[in-house]
Design goal:
Elements (H helix, E strand, L loop, with lengths): L1 E6 L2 H11 L6 E6 L2 H4 L3 E2 L7 H10 L4 E4 L2 H5 L2 H7 L4 E2 L3 H8 L1 H10 L7 E4 L2 H9 L5 E5 L8 E4 L2 H12 L9 E5 L4 E10 L3 E9 L2 E3 L3 E4 L4 E4 L6 H21 L5 E11 L2 E8 L6 H5 L7 H9 L14 E9 L10 E2 L12 E5 L2 E4 L2 E4 L3 E9 L2 H15 L4 E2 L6 H4 L1
Parallel strand pairs: 1-2, 1-4, 2-3, 4-5
Antiparallel strand pairs: 6-9, 7-8, 7-9, 10-11, 10-15, 11-14, 12-13, 14-17, 15-16, 17-22, 17-23, 18-21, 19-22, 20-21
Helix pairs in contact: 8-9
The structure holds adenosine monophosphate and glycine.
Length: 420
C-alpha cells in the first residue's frame, strides 16, 4: 500500500523508516520530508497550509493512509478536511487537537473532570492578572494559551518577571492573546506518557524521557528536546494505573461529552510529585525526539497498528516491544536554540557505519546535488539500542566523534539520571 507522512523532523523520519521496514508498504510520500526521508520515500514539496493541494496530491497518487506528525496541521484541522474527502488519516481532529492547541481548553477539562493539575487562574486583561500576581507565591508559571512551539511558558521567580511575561503575552508575542493562564509551580520530576488511540480504545505506547534544556546537567534554555531515553526510569505499574485512571480516561470522557473522540497519539506531559501524577500539558502527537527513541524498539508492524487505529480495531492488535534500552542524542547547529547558521554542508553523514541496533534520523537537513546541508536547529538524531544505557550512549558518542561535524554541538550527558 501507499502511505503519506506529514512533517519534516526527526520524528517523521523515524515514522518513515518504521513504515519502510514493513513488507506491506510499496511507497511512502513525505510532505515535505528531509534529506533522510528522501532516501527511502518521495519528498513532496507542498505548503502544509494548502490543504486542497495536499488533498489533490493524495487523490492523484492514490495514497491510502496519511500519518500526521506535527501539531500545527492537526490544530489547523487537516484531519477534518481530509476526512471530508474519504481519506484515511491517523491523527486527532480539530476539536480533540485543542488539548494541545489551547492550554485553557485543557485546564477547563481538568477542572470539570477533577484531573490533577497545577492550580490555576485565567485572566482576560493585564490589570486582573497583575492584581492576582501581587498576592501570589513564587515561583509561579505564566503561559500563553495558544500554540507557541514550546516557547509560551514562563517560570517566574518574582512578581516583576511575572508582570513582564503577562505583558509580552498580551502584547502579542505568541499571536493574538485574549487570555493569559497563571498557574502554581509544581516541584517534582517531569515524565512523558504516550498512548495511541483509535477513537474507541487506547493502548500504551511505551515510555521515554527527554532532556529539554540545551546545556549539560539540564541547564540553560528550553529546546524542542536534546535527547531522550526509553523506557523512562520513573514508570511503575502503580503510577501507570494512576495516570490512566486519573488523567487519560477522564480526558477521553471530557472529549466524548464534547461530541468527539480521540484518534492518534496522545502525549501527556506530567509532573510526578511524590509518586502522584499531575498533568502539565497535553500534546496530540508523538514527542520529538521521544518518537525516534521509542520506535526502534517496536516489534509489531507499525502499519498494522496505524491501520487498526484508522479502522477502530486497535483492540485486535498486540503491541510488542524489544526489551532493549534505547538512547537518542540530538545533534544541533551551533547557536541553537537562538541564532544559528543554515545551509552548512554535512560531509559523510550517510557514510556513518551503523549496525542493526543503530539508527540515524535526519531532522533539519536537505539534499541538494547529492550533498546534505543543515537547515534547522536540530539537525539529526543518532539512536542506539543496547542492554544498558551507558553502552548505548558511548556507542553514539564514538560515532559522532568520528563524524566530527564542526558546526554542531550535542549533549554528552543524555540519560545521566539512569547512567551516572
Ligand atoms: P509546557 O509547554 O506547558 O509543557 O511547559 C514547558 C515546561 O515548563 C514544562 O516542560 C515544565 O518544565 C515547565 N512547566 C510548565 N508548567 C509548570 C508547572 N505548573 N510547574 C512547574 N513547571 C512547569
Ligand atoms: N520533546 C518534547 C516535544 O516533542 O514536545
Amino acid at each position: 500500500m501507499k502511505v503519506g507522512i506529514i512533517g519534516s523532523g526527526g520524528r517523521e523520519h523515524a515514522i518513515c523508516e518504521s513504515l519502510y521496514n514493513s513488507n506491506k508498504i510499496d511507497k511512502i510520500y513525505c510532505f515535505p520530508g528531509n534529506a533522510g526521508t528522501a532516501n527511502i520515500s518521495e519528498n513532496v514539496n507542498i505548503n502544509l497550509e494548502n490543504f486542497e493541494e495536499i488533498k489533490n496530491f493524495i487523490k492523484d497518487n492514490k495514497i491510502e493512509l496519511i500519518v500526521i506528525g506535527p501539531e500545527k496541521p492537526l490544530v489547523d484541522g487537516l484531519v477534518d478536511y481530509l476526512q471530508k474527502f474519504q481519506i484515511k488519516v491517523f491523527g486527532p481532529n480539530k476539536t480533540a487537537s485543542q488539548l494541545e492547541g489551547s492550554k485553557i481548553f485543557t485546564k477547563q477539562i481538568c477542572q470539570k473532570y477533577n484531573i490533577p493539575t497545577a492550580k490555576f487562574g485565567i485572566f482576560q486583561n493585564k490589570e486582573d492578572a497583575s492584581n492576582y500576581l501581587k498576592n501570589s507565591n513564587y515561583p509561579i508559571v505564566v503561559k500563553a494559551d495558544n500554540l507557541a512551539s514550546g516557547k509560551g511558558v514562563y517560570i517566574c521567580e518574582n512578581q516583576k518577571d511575572a508582570l513582564l511575561a503577562v505583558d509580552e503575552i498580551f502584547n502579542g508575542k505568541f499571536g493574538e492573546a485574549k487570555n493569559v493562564l497563571i498557574e502554581e509551580f509544581l516541584k517534582g520530576e517531569e515524565m512523558s506518557f504516550f498512548t495511541i488511540h483509535d477513537g474507541n480504545t487506547f493502548k500504551e505506547f511505551d515510555t521515554a524521557q527527554d532532556h529539554k534544556r540545551v546545556l549539560e546537567g539540564d541547564n540553560g534554555k528550553n529546546t524542542g528536546g536534546m535527547g531522550a531515553y526509553s523506557p523512562s526510569r520513573l514508570i511503575n505499574n502503580k503510577l501507570k494505573e494512576k495516570i490512566i485512571n486519573k488523567i487519560i480516561k477522564p480526558t477521553l470522557k471530557g472529549l466524548h461529552e464534547l461530541g468527539t473522540n480521540f484518534n492518534g497519539f496522545l502525549y501527556a506531559g506530567l509532573m510526578i510529585v511524590e509518586n502522584e501524577p499531575y498533568l502539565i500539558e497535553y500534546n496530540v502527537r508523538m514527542g520529538d525526539p521521544e518518537c525516534q527513541t521509542i520506535l526502534p524498539k517496536l516489534k509489531t508492524d507499525f502499519i498494522d497498528i496505524l491501520m487498526a487505529c484508522s479502522d477502530g480495531k486497535l483492540n485486535e492488535i498486540q503491541i510488542e516491544w524489544s526489551k532493549k534500552k534505547s538512547l537518542c542524542i540530538v545533534v544541533c547547529s551551533k547557536g541553537y536554540p537562538d541564532v544559528y547558521e543554515k545551509n552548512i554542508e554535512i560531509q559523510n553523514l550517510d557514510k556513518i557505519l551503523k549496525n542493526s541496533k543503530e539508527f540515524l534520523f535526519h531532522a533539519g537537513t536537505v539534499k541538494k546535488n547529492n550533498k546534505i546541508f543543515s537547515i534547522g536547529g536540530r539537525v539529526f538524531n543518532f539512536v542506539s539500542l543496547s542492554d544498558d544505557y551507558k553502552s548505548a550512549r558511548n556507542q553514539i558518542i564514538s560515532k559522532l566523534e568520528k563524524l566530527n561535524w564542526p558546526w554542531s554541538f550535542y549533549r554528552k550527558d543524555i540519560g545521566h539520571k539512569v547512567i551516572d
